[in-house]
Every structure is written in C-alpha cells, then in structure tokens.
Amino acid sequence: MVASKTDEKVTLVTKDGYKKLVEELDNLKNVRRREIAERIKEAISYGDLSENSEYEEAKNEQAFVEGRILELEEKVKSAKIIDDKKKKSVKTVQLGSKVKVKNKSIKGSKPAEYVIVGSTEAGYENKISNESPVGNALLEKSVGDKVKVSVPAGIMEYEILNIT
Fold first, then answer.
1. How many CB atoms lie within 10 A of CB 97?
2. Among 23, 2, 14, 5, residue whose Cα is nearest residue 86
3. Domain boundaries along the sequence of the chain
4. Which H helix or E strand runs over 162?
5. Contact 161, 145 (CB under 8 A)
6. Are strands 98-103 and 154-163 parallel, antiparallel or unpaired?
7. Residue 72's beta-bridge partner residues?
8. Is the CATH code 3.30.310.50 the one for domain 2-81?
9. Distance between CA atoms of 21 and 13, rounded to whole angstroms?
10. The whole model's pTM is what?
11. pLDDT tens, 57-116?
12. What's the CATH class of domain 84-163?
C-alpha cells in the first residue's frame, strides 16, 4: 500500500489482481468460515475443551481467517485499479507494464520478463512490486535505458529491451 495526497492508504492493483482479491475474500467469508464453524462445532461435541486439540486448532485457524478477511476487506476498500489503457500509449515503464530486461551484470544471462505491479500482487507469475529495488528502478525508464540496482547479491545492471 502507498499513501496518497490525503494520507489515505491506497492499494495499487491490476484488474486481474483486484478480481483475485475479491475472489479470495468471497471464499474466506462464504466457504472457509462455514467449514471452520463446522469443525469447531464438531470439536465441541468431543467434550472437555481444555485438552481438545481439534478445538484449539480450529480456533487458531478461525483467528487466522478472520485476520485475513479484515486485511482483504481493507485492500479491496482502498484498491486503485491500474489503468491498462494509459500504459499502452506510454513509452516508459509504468505500473502494469510488462518489461523485458537483460541482466548485463551476469554474462550469458537470458532476458527476463516482469510485470510491474503494486506490492499486493507481487511475488508470483513474474510480477514484481513497484516498491522493490528493481521495480522502482525500472519505473519511468524507456527501451534501451540501462539501470543500476543495488540488490542483496550486489549491484546489478539491467537493460530494458521491450515494454508492453
């Protein structure tokens, strides 16, 4: 999440990322809650709750799910969908851009493709956060630009080969 001009938290997501957040929230509220309630009900029927591991496990899972629901509700409420139409007319890397880069610091490395997204969506399907060192360094750059990025392995230099 990032702070906007009015200090409200904004969650930057793609249309697909927003859809996934809503689907996960719906599943947790309408499926997982019921499943856990049934597990708790069944565990209670076993009697003595003080030594009932099934009950304890179900209550812990319930707490986790309720926490995740709160987190997702906040993200959905504060979501700002990245406008795909804007990025198609722009020649620089923006949120939502797919960027093909070559790591010039590693001889023989093959080009890699990344999609620049908000931190909520990062970490899967070659999606990197605009807040990560590499994602942040690529923002506003054009095809042919080279950027140097400090990463845990040292300083890496990337060349932008393509932006879509």
1. 23
2. 14
3. 2-81, 84-163
4. strand 154-163
5. no
6. antiparallel
7. none
8. no
9. 9
10. 0.68
11. 999 999 999 999 999 999 999 988 877 555 455 589 988 899 999 999 888 899 999 999
12. alpha beta
| Torsion angle of the four alpha carbons 155, 145, 138, 90, in this order, in degrees rounded to the nearest 10 | 180
Tally: H helices and E strands in the chain: 5, 8
Cα angle 12, 16, 20 (rounded to 5 degrees) comes to 90
Distance of CA 93 to CAs 35, 41, 54, 82, 164, Å? 44, 52, 50, 13, 9
Based on the number of CB atoms within 10 Å of its own CB, is 164 exposed (0-12), middle (13-18) or buried (19 or more)?
exposed
Instruction: Report the pLDDT value the prediction gives residue 7, as an integer from 0 to 100.
Output: 47
pLDDT > 70 fraction of the chain, expressed in percent and rounded? 90
* CA 25/CA 27 separation, integer angstroms: 5
More confident residue, 81 or 148: 148
Return the structure tokens found at 159.
């060349």
Q: How far is CA 19 from the centre of its chain?
A: 12
